[in-house]
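Subject: Interface between my chains keeps coming out wrong

I've been trying for a while to get a sensible model of this assembly. When I model each chain on its own everything looks fine, but I need the whole thing in one frame so I can look at the contacts. Pasting all components below, labels as-is. Any help appreciated, I'm running out of ideas.
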Amino acid sequence: MIWTVLLLVNGILFFLLLSNRSRSKREPPLDKGVIPWLGHALEFGKDAAKFLTRMKKKHGDIFTVRVAGRYVTVLLDPNSYDAVLQDSGSLDFSRYAQVLMERIFKLHLPNHNPAVEKAIMKQYFQGKSLSSLNSSMRRNLQALVTSETLPNQKDWKSSGLFNLCYSLLFRAGYLTLFGAETNNNSPDTRQIYKEYRTFDGLLTKMARTTLNSGEKQVAGEARESLWELLSAAGLGESASTWIRHYRQHLQQGGADQDTQTRAMLLQLWATQGNVGPAAFWLLAFLLTTPQAMKAVRREFNRVSLNTAKGPTLDSCQPTPVFDSALEETLRLTAAPFITREVLQNKTLCMADGREYDLRQGDRVCLFPFVSPQMDPDIYQEPEKFKYDRFLNADGTPKKVFYKGGERLKYYTMPWGAGGNSCVGKPFAIEAIRQFVYLVITHLDLELCEPESGLPAVKTSCYGFGMVQPEGDIFIRFSHRSCDGML
Ligand SMILES: *[C@@H]1O[C@H](CO)[C@@H](O)[C@H](O)[C@H]1NC(C)=O
Ligand SMILES: *[C@@H]1O[C@H](CO)[C@@H](O)[C@H](O)[C@H]1NC(C)=O
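Reply #2:
Try treating it as a single job with all components included. I did that and got this:
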C-alpha cells in the first residue's frame, strides 16, 4: 500500500517533470504509453518478449519507450548491434551493472574494476586451467548423477526435470569452482542449492525493485543464509584457483570480509544461474522430440570410450549434432537484455544508413531474443525446436545466416557479445555436454505425461539470462541396466 502511494507521488512528480518530453525529428519513434511516469513498465515487466515484439510491429526495429520514469531506446536490428556494442565511450555498461549489484546482492565493491575481474576470469577459464576445470566438473557430475540411482536396482524414481537438472549442475559447479572442504563443517551442497533457489526465484523482482514486503523478507533471509554458507568460499585449498585468486584480488583491493562474501554470492549466481536451466531445456526438447534424441544418442555412442567406470565421453571428440541441438535450445530460451547507459548525446548509425540521435541519460537496450533469435526473417518457424538447424547438409556446423540479404555477424547471441560476452562459455558448454551425456547413458528416463508437452515459460524473467519454466515437467528414471548401450 505504502509502495503504491509512494509510487503515485513519485509518478506525479516525474510526470510534471518529464511528461513534456517530445520527439525531435532525428530521434527514434517515441512511445510513452498512457500511464504517467510508469509508461510501459507493467507490460514490459510482465512479458518483455511479447511487449517488444508488439512495439517492433508498431514502430520498426528502433524506438524509445518510457519505463518507470526512464526512457529506453530499444534496438532490434542485429546488423546494427555493433554500433552499440563497440561504442564503450558514449555507452556505458558498468553503471547499470552496479545498480543491479547493489539491488540484488547488496554489494558495493571498493575500487571496482570490471575489466580486471574479467581478465582474472579469462586467465582461469582457458588453456590448462580450463582443462583441469573440465575434468573436475566431469568427476563431480559423474559422482552426483550416479548417486541418484543405485546400480542393479530397477526402482523408478520420479522428479521434476528442472529441479533435477538445476540441482545436479549447481552442486557440481559449486564443488568445482568454490570447493569442497572435507571437514565436517563444510556446507552441504543441497542446503546451498535450496537457499539459492529461493533467492534465484525472486531475483528478477529484486532487480526491478518490485518485491512485496513478504517477498522482501524471504529474499533477505535467503541472502543472509547464503552469505553464511559462502563465508569461507575460496579460502581453502580445495577451491578452484580462479576463486582463490579472485578472493585475493578483493582483499588487496580493500574489500572487507563481508564484502568478499557478498561478491562470492554474485559469482555463484553468475557462474551457476544459467547452466542448469539450459540443460533442462535441452533435455526437455530432446525428450519431446524423439528424432532429435535419437540423433544425439547415435553421436554420443560414436564418441564414447568404454572405461572401467563405464562409458565416458571423450572430451576431445567433436559433437556437431549435440552442439547444434544446444545452440538451437539456447536460441529459443536464452533471453538476456544487453543494456547500456548513454553518457553523452550521440548519433547512432544503423547498418542501412539511417541515423538517430540518442539522449544523454537514456538507456539503450538490445534484445537479441526478439531479433535475431526469434526473427522469422532469419529462421523459418522460429518457435519450433529443430535440432539440426545449426548443421549443414554435410554435417558440419552451420554459421551462415542472412537477414534482408545481408549476412549476419550475430545470428544468435545467448552468450552476449563484444567486450561483455561470457568468459565461461567453453566451460559451461562442456558442463552441459557432460551432464546430458551422463544422464542419457546412465539413466533410463521417460516423461510421466508425454502428452502434456513442454511447460510454459515464466514470462516475467525475460531479460535476465536463461528463461525458466512455469512449473516443471515430471520424469521417471532408474539406473540404466545395459551400460554402454545407447
Ligand atoms: C573443455 O571443454 C570445452 C568445451 O567442450 C572445449 O572447447 C575445451 O577444449 C575443453 N578444454 C580442455 C583444455 O580440455
Ligand atoms: C543533448 O540532447 C538534448 C536533446 O536533444 C538537448 O536538450 C541537450 O541540451 C543535449 N545535451 C548536450 C550536453 O549537448
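Reply #3:
Confirming on my end. Residues 114-334+376-479 form a domain with the Cytochrome p450 fold (CATH 1.10.630.10).
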